[in-house]
Amino acid sequence: MVNDNRRHPRFRPNGLIAKIIIEPPPPADEIILEGVVVDMSYTGIKIKLKTPISDDLPVSEILIKLIMPESGVPVSIHGIIKHLNAESECGLQYSENHLEHKVDDLMFECIKLAAGHTQD
Asked: Domain coordinates of the chain in residue numbers?
């Protein structure tokens, strides 16, 4: 069994669509991608992209836009890419300005969406 050293559990909000806007340094144009949230926690989010991106992407500002399905509330999250894998899953870590108490409402609704959520 593999130990999970995470401080916060991950939740799987079924069917939550994410729009990712990557703003690389000039002169490159912004990149807009869409995907489905695989899982999320208070510190990061994993998204299965509809189209793959290059793993040699320069360090860039990332903006993730979500529309919460139940409340219809738009949510924007800033972060950085932590990893990409061969299945086009993109792991993003929230920026430091997204403190735990600031994402409580987002997590509350995502936990409600995660029917039968697991903490693996």
From this structure: 17-112
Q: Which residue has the higher pLDDT, 119 or 32?
A: 32
| Dist CA 120 CA 117 (whole Å) | 9
Tokens for 20?
A: 């990712």
Among the listed residues 80, 17, 70, the one whose alpha carbon sits nearest the alpha carbon of residue 43: 80
Strand partners, 37: 47
How many C-alpha atoms does 32 have within 13 Å on its Cβ side? 2
State how far the Cα of 73 lies from the Cα of 108, in Å rounded to an integer: 13
pLDDT, one tens digit per residue, over 32-57 is 999 999 988 878 889 999 988 877 77
Domain boundaries 17-112, corresponding CATH code: 2.40.10.220
Spell out the SS3 assignment of 50-79. Answer: CCCCCCCCCCCEEEEEEECCCCCCEEEEEE
**Closest residue by Cα to residue 42 from 108, 89, 117:** 108
**Continuous H helices in 1-120:** 104-113
